[in-house]
Specification:
Layout (H helix, E strand, L loop, with lengths): L1 H31 L1 H18 L1 H4 L30 H36 L3 H15 L2 H11 L5 H10 L3 H14 L3 H8 L4 H9 L4 H24 L10 H10 L9 H28 L7
Helix pairs in contact: 1-13, 2-4, 2-13, 4-5, 4-7, 4-8, 4-11, 4-13, 5-8, 7-11, 8-11, 9-10, 11-12, 11-13, 12-13
Length: 301
Amino acid sequence: MPGAAAAVTAGGESRVPGSLRVIGRAFRTLWSNGKARIGLIIIALMVLVAIFAPLIANHSPTATTFQPYQNPNGSNWFGTTGNGQDVFSQMVYGARVSLLVGLVSGAVATIVAVTIGLIAGYRPGPVDEGLSFLTNLVLVIPGLPLMIILAAYLQSHSVWTIILVVAFTSWATGARVIRSQATTLRTRDFITSAQFSGERLHRVVFREILPNMTSLVAASFFAAATAAVMAEASLEFLGLGDPNTVSWGTILYYAQQQNSVLTGQWLLVFAPGLAIALLATAFTLVNFGVDALSNPRLREK
């Protein structure tokens, strides 16, 4: 028993540093890519803003105690809305919702894409045909109109409803790419050896095939997160979200409702629009570094 325990401990100690080395090597590869480095810095800054929002914002984002339609001043750095709310505070707190929707929707869409793509690629025949038909069906349906229909007919317009709607419409592209890669991997020798050794389906798929397409999964996540940020802003702008939620999309919605451009409140439109574009660009820039993980030719010298 002591020997077995020592073996387990030794095995665990040998595995953990190996995992850390893989993570460290992947991070160094991302950081060595100039575009990915810029994207990581932008995302990190936005995460810090979202975490420390109560310390950064000088007012409550929902307080209506200010004079409406004020221009930027010492107290209200970005001016005020037509309801007398501080725009800067809404921008700071809005980072929480936009990041939450982007990261969680991206994660959920990636999990669905990986599951469907791996199973379809590993099981040719009726299973592959059925899942491929479902994937192609979702791909040919325009994403934004489908999201509008789903969001409009769902009773709840909370942030979590938006997350589910966005995730439901964002998985198909990743699933198609992962399925194609899984199809090529299932005929490799190490997969055949695992099959002959009696490994079960889930172990072959998730322990043998999945680790060989880590970069594709990461790319699928960042692509889905980028689409989720834009989709959340679009749905909120159209009034299909929760009007009581403070997000960059709701700021744009109220700016449109209050004719902010006509009243000279151009910052009420420019600030959230720039923040949304900057976050989406950051995810896209990190995606360049993810491509470098799988293709050494793309790595910067």
